[in-house]
Every structure is written in C-alpha cells, then in structure tokens.
Amino acid sequence: MARSLFRGAPELSRLFIESPIHLISEFLSHSQFSVFLSDAMAAVPADAEDQIRSEKMAEALKALKSDRINLIEIEARRVMLMTDKTPDAMLRRLAEDPRFAAKEGLKAQRDEVARSLWAYLHAIALFEAAERAMQVRVYREHGTLYEAWSIDASIPLAAAGVDHDALSTEIAERLQHEDGCKVEAVDLPAENGESQDVLLAVTFFGAYASQKTVQPDKSTKLLYFRPPDEMLLVYSHARRRIEVCSRDRVERKIVANLFAADTLKHDISNKPLTQKTYNLSRFRNSLKLPIPDEEAHRVKKAGIIEVQVALGDWSRKVTLSVAPEDDIDAIARSVFGAIIPKAGGGYVTKVRFRIEHVDGRERKAILQFDVFGRNKSNIQSERDPAKRELGYDLLEAWGVMERIGDLSKPQRKEKLPQLLSLYDFANEKASGRSLDELGIAADELTGAGFLTRKGWSDVILFEDDELGEVVHNVERDGSSDEATLTLIEGGTGSTIPAEDVSEYEIRFDYLRDALRDLLKPTGLKGRVREMADHLHQVGVASIGLADAPIFLARATSVDRLLEASDRLVRGEGNRVRGIVFVPQDVRFPYLGCHVVLSLRDHIDADAGMIDADAVRSSYEAAIDPAARGAAIHFRKQGNDAAQITVPGQDPRIVIGAKKVKLFERLYMAHRDRENGVKLAVLKDYAGFSQLPQLFGDEWAEVNARYLYSPRRAYWALCEEPISV
Description:
The protein is built from 23 helices and 35 strands. It is of the alpha+beta class. It folds into 6 domains: 10-139, no CATH class; 142-264, no CATH class; 276-403, no CATH class; 409-506, no CATH class; 507-628, no CATH class; 630-723.
C-alpha cells in the first residue's frame, strides 16, 4: 500500500510510487531539501536500473527523522492536490497561455501525477497560478475570507492589460505597506462559453518573525524572516464581478475599489460597486415559494427542501430536511411550532432551495443551492451562467437577496452628518429607534454596508405617557410591521412600529475607512494602527514643520473611554504634537500633548472633505498651550470629568467625582494665591481618605508632576517644572 511506504507521509508515498523515476529523483534532489537529503541523493547511482534507483531513494527517505520527512510531505501534498480532475484540467488549460512556455512539456507527461510534478519542477509559475485558481474556488464555495462585488459596467480586460507596477504602487500606498507589494496577473481559462476571467495575486511582506536555530558549531543564532501575505482577486467580465480573498475585510473592499477605479477605469464615485446580501427573515413566517409571473415560462416548481433554525442562540440549531414532494411549510409548523417561542429566538440561519425549470433548449433541469447567513451562498459556484442568473433573479423576486453598495460621492457628502453620528456610538449595537432619534437613515446606511441588521430586541425600555419609563418584552411574528410590547410584570402594552425594535450592528471598520478618506486633503499617509477599538492612529500628515501623528477617537462622551484614550496617547511617548479628531463635539481641547479637533466643524461644506487650511489654523492656535503649558488651567465638565494643565506637563484628563473635586479645590487655592491646601480640608471637600489610594496606579504619574506637597500636610498644584 502507498500509505505504508513512508510512515506519516501518505502523500509522499503515493507520489513516490505513481511518479516517473526521473521526476521523483529530480523532486528529491530539489535544492530546498538539500540540507538533509543532498548526501543521500548523491549516493543514488544515476546510471543504475530504475528499480535499484527507486530502492536507494526509498532507503534514504526511510532513514530520515519524522520532522524532515514532514517537510517533504508538505510539498508532496501540494503536488498531489493538483492531480484531481478539476485541478488537473485547470493546469492543462492554463498551460495554453504562451507566457508559461509549458504547453509541450506538460503534454509530454504520461498522466495527471506526472503533469503536476513536472509543472512543480519546471513551470512553477504555472503551478502556482493553478494553485491560486483552485484556492479561490475553495474560498468561494465556503464563503470564508471572501467577498464579491458587482460592477455596473461591462469592461473587457486581459491579464496583459494590467499595469502591474502602477497597481502595486497604488495598493501598497493605500494599504500602507511601506515595503511595497508585488502584483501578478494571469488569464483564467474560459468555462461554459463565458469569457475568460483575470486572476490577480498580490503578495505583501508579512510581519517580522524570528526563530532560533542551531549552527553546525552548536552555537545558536537568531534568524529573522518575513512570511508572505497574499491577497487574491478575480475579475469576471461576463459576470461583471470582482472577487477578493483576504483575511481583512476592509482591505478586501479597498482593493476591489482600487482595481475598479485604476485598472478598469470605472467611475466608482458615481457608480459604486455593489454586493449581494441575503435576508432570510421572510422564512420565519412561511416557507412557501410563489413562482414570480415573469419567471413562470421557465420555472415549473420552486420549493425549499431544508431549513435550519437557531433556537434563540446560534450555538443551538435545528435542521429540518424533507423530500422534494413534501410540504415543508406544514411540517415545519408542526415541528418548530412546539419548540420556538413567539418572542425572540427562531432565527432562520440556512435555507436550501430546489428549482425545477427548463433550460434554453426546453430540457428539464434542476437548480439546487443554499443560502446561509447574510453574506453566504454557494449559488456563485454554479458553473452554468444561465442557472446562476436564474437563481439570483428568483432570490431578488422573493425578497431574499438585496444589493448593497457604497455611497456615491454626492450621497456620502449628504450622509456625512449621519456617518459622524454613527461613528460616535459607544456600543457596536444600536436599535432602530435610537438611530431614528438621531436622524440616521438605517435602511440606506445598511444598504451601503455601514450597518448590518441583526434581528430585533427582545426587551426594550419604552417611555409610556402614563407609566413613565417601563421595561417591556417584545413580541412580533416574522412578517408583521408592528411589534407588541408586554409588561415584564404581566399585562399587554402598546404596539409600535417593528422598525423601532430592529437591532443593528455598526460596522466601525467601514466607517473609519470612510472618515479617513475625508482627511486626504491634509496629505495623510502611513498605516492605520489600532490602539484600542475606540482609538486609532490613522497616519501622519505634514502640519507645521514636522509630520504630525493623526488619531481618530470615538465615543469620547463616555468618561471611561475618554480617560482610556488620554492614557493611550500619553503612553505613546511621542513628543511630536499631533491631532486627535473626534466625529462631533470636543469635550476637552487636548488629549495628552495632542490637539483635539472636531471633524464635523472642519468639513468644507462644498467639497464634503476636510478643510486642510482650517485644520492648520486651529492646530496652530491651540498647539502652544499643549506644548507643556506655561500656565495652569482647569476645565471642568459636569461633576465627573475635568482636564488639568500645569507647567512642564501634558494636559491630563481627570475622571471621577472625588478626583475632580480635589483638583478643583487645588485650582481655587492657586487662583486665590493660597500657599497650598491642608490635607484635612481636601479630604473633607473631595470625600476621600488617602491620596495614593484615590489615584491607585496613577499616583506615580500625578505626584510631583501635577500636584505636590509644599510643606507637611499641605498640597498644591505644580506651578513650575519640578525635578523628579
């Protein structure tokens, strides 16, 4: 048996047995295995009979330790994965491209194993192109690390028409990869009469990694290396579709738009790319599928043969499967009706469709596909374009499929106040009612990808005219436009629009990318760096005499997040004073040594972008006091938040009623020219027992920097820099 030839290496065993002797010999003599195989392979007689050579090579492999055989197994697995029917067909069709210069060499091989191994050894560019094409299929079928966009134009393109240098420069700059990237384009073979697709592979430098290794003299050495990161993009002219496979969803969107704008020369400002999303909520009330009138001529029967329902929690699911002739709606009502509560729970998470139709030649055909979640469906893997489009048309007619797309430039300008309000939310979840109260058009921003509908709230705090603020349960069936509120203690409340209790998830990553685009007039450059989920450094910009760091903070209206942001920027230790942009209101003028400016107040109303001159003026007017201020300032907001500025130190945010009252009393003493305040008076005024305990871990940062003891049992604000 092939699997028993080399222990722990089934693919190598199969490759060794099924490959021509000259190719397996060449494979094992590859330079990447020379560290541990070169001596053994040199001992294999080149002019001996095939049987003897095979036995000698097998002995050499069996003598290897498991860690070394595993390394060879990894490469053997790559080769064997390309021997299945579909990858082998892809390899042969790609070899037709003259740029690989591999057509004749591949044809000369005896079978699929020999073809795969020959390509690995003699046409690695061809082999990797086929690997990438198959990788895209896997991503597409499983819907992971994958997104697809539709483009509202039919723009032909071939791999030769891609400007690799220009596109790689644009991608590296936009994704802030300082070391650049590499773009490779290849034409994918046409299938089912469609035009050929174009596959782009974008390779980046990965993050630095290190590993210790033992040298021949038994000393150790630290090796630094950078594993590659790769992004795959497929453009289909026939389908008008751009697919991107990558770990980061924001980067997927950025690269799709860059490709459309720079390579296809498509006007994405006025005709944004769109995505298909799926809404299965209609099936919570009924599993029947009417045949749309416009499709009656080709669709004979449409039904659901499987449905999956989550019982209030995504970890608990029930799946019901039936035969095509069964009435799944009636069966589901009897099965699910007993276990799904009316209020909450019962979310439909997966539906399997079965469509009986006739094709263009009036032949009977079956189309079967799944939709699961909001963004996943295997219908895009259907190779027959006519079937695929039929499925999309039916899903759209049934209200299951929605098309979402970025806002056009005029729309983004119009919706900018709403985007700023949305980014300033403290939590990632928001109710339809709270969005409506802020004037945020939830449906439109959901269609643009900034919001995701997540169902509805089970419990809501509702203000009743008679009872005041009362907690209610929410009851609603899947199709009703209204929801009924029932009192927690019992009794029926009022009915309200279902939209008021709809629950949304805010896509802060998409919003942040949109707001970062507003800053382009400042000459912003550099990578986005997450310091916390509410604070990001979005790059640097030339303001004044140096490149100043630019930050974007949200939810500074929440005291704990404001304090956390202040600590984070002060902890950077960066003495170049920059700007912290907040979406709307500025609570305090500084965070650390950085100036805080409102995005809303510095937008050019005509352009819908940041007014760089206004930003520079505001920055220059505020930066001198921020530079380790020359005077003492105390700014208080309410009872729980304040900012203290003393000479020689960065402005500091103070959160907590007792700490605010402490600094307030010390500031009053400074204003009235008192020589300190007695500790007992401070304790009584602010309500604390011990100063170090009041500040906890912050005490070392505060003592002798912002306040000090001029004499025993007295405390005052630091009025001049003190040597620490």
